[in-house]
Amino acid sequence: MPCDNGPMPTHTVTGATGYTGRYITRLLLERGDHVRTLTGHPDRPNPFGPGVQALPFNFDDPAALAHSLEGTHTLFNTYWVRVSHRNLTHDRAAANLHTLFTAAKAAGVRRIVHISITNADPNSHLSYFRCKALVENALRESGLSHAILRPTLVFGKEDILLNNIAWMLRRFPIFPIPGTGQYQVQPICVEDLATLAVDASEGNDNLELDSVGPDVFTYDEMVKLVRDKTHTKARLLHVPPSLVLLAGSALGLLVRDVVLSRDEIAGLSANLLVSNSTAPAPGRIRFSDWLDDHASHLGRHYASEMARHYR
Q1: Which fold has domain 160-185+215-304?
Q2: Distance (Å, whole) CA 213 – CA 185
């Protein structure tokens, strides 16, 4: 909790106008804390108004980046790129975060809460998981007090992947499943993840936590649950992953977006979106319960990755 008998702390959240960062910011503001944000789109409308100052990332100007972090109690990092686009690759994003952590140390930031991914591995052949691991190592080596939270699929009203699964189920008679569909997912609600992040900002001990929900599904089971809750009738068809990627690429041309990446299919099929920890899952909101409340709105409109982050 905030310090008693003292001013409310100032926190910096990367991407407070985005997805996970928005929920973290909302919780911090509800506590009465002060929040600023670093963003790649400082000129976009700010849902929090003038109460949350929006500053540019300035990855190419480490001194300016450090200056923007001065006075920060905790830096909550949600910055990443889902898919490589033009010169913004996973490797570039990892380098940017190394710069951010160095700037945070120079600015005297007390603690960093970093959102990573389950099963990050520096030896992975998948750039998403490999570069996530490199970022974790950079944070450990920074010497800063830190918490590393490792979610899987994060579901919520603003989620792109889950929304677009529902969108396809609503609009097409067949929904392709890569391979057997028996690989597992352990989704966590964005509200649970935000709560874990804010809780992790307290204390000084370093923490690494698989931030997952209470339910484990096969991918088949998860898609069937979305289909049932949205009252759609699409047939699930198991096809080779290469055909799913081809179909996703064709659909991507129509909607001017990256519907699904090769790394996402490979990571899913390799059971990388489920925790290997034997500890109880820290998430509390059940996916099926959340769908009961939100399925009627899920997938009504396509959610574009390119429009949200690049256009």
Answers
A1: UDP-galactose 4-epimerase; domain 1 (3.90.25)
A2: 10
